[in-house]
Amino acid sequence: MMRVILLLSSFAWARPPIPTPTQAVNMVVDTWHEAASKADEATYFKLFAPDAVFLGTDGTERWPVAEFRKYAHQRFATGKGWTITPKARRVSFSPDGKVAWFDEDVVNAKWGPSRGSGVLVQIDGLWKIAQYNYSVPIPNDLLPKVVDMIRAAK
Description:
Layout: H1 2-12, H2 21-37, H3 41-46, E1 48-55, E2 62-64, H4 65-76, E3 85-93, E4 99-108, E5 112-123, E6 126-135, H5 143-153
Parallel strand pairs: 1-6
Antiparallel strand pairs: 1-2, 3-4, 4-5, 5-6
């Protein structure tokens, strides 16, 4: 009988640890990136807040989540998504712990070394992405040429 009690008490302590707030945010963003790479539309969009915004690399790309889903649906329906691989991420929190923001160094096969930054909010105890901004940094010494190319294109 004593063995049964000891065995049962050891199961009570075998619960997985509760993630820290930083770990929880990282899990959401990592899951979100993974869903995009697998063209998993359901998972990808359930991680957005209802009024989220995605900012893309083009200056015209400010996508409220409903519009972004229409665009992404066409791509995800083909079974192809996009892969953004995080290399480093820094996470910060509001004093009340209900808002998080992050910036990350990422790599994409098409765009190379890139950046992402975002804001997450807690909704019903779950972290949701309220904004993501994907950008491709331009070295300062190349910026004048790039600006000239942009002006010429307009």
